[in-house]
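May I ask for a sample protein chain and its fold as tokens?
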Amino acid sequence: MSNIGEVIGWKFSHQPGMVTRDGVITEFPGGIPSQADQDKWTAEYETWKAIMDEIERLEAEVTPRRIRDAFADPAWMNAQEAKIKTERDKL
């Protein structure tokens, strides 16, 4: 389970007035959100994070050597770009 500070920072672009302590929201503009909202935001964050981790993994496979090889045969690079696009479309 993700840290609620990371979750609300991601969800609300690190706006001022949000404070957490020991995994609990202690200050939040407009009042502390419900546990249901926090759980929903955490699920959204974890989905986003998993997708971004996979995109980063796929992009890391595009090494200088793979780029050079793509000049002779672009099939692998095209397939890799398609995988990355599939992940980005999930966002």
Q: What stands out?
A: The radius of gyration is 19 Å.
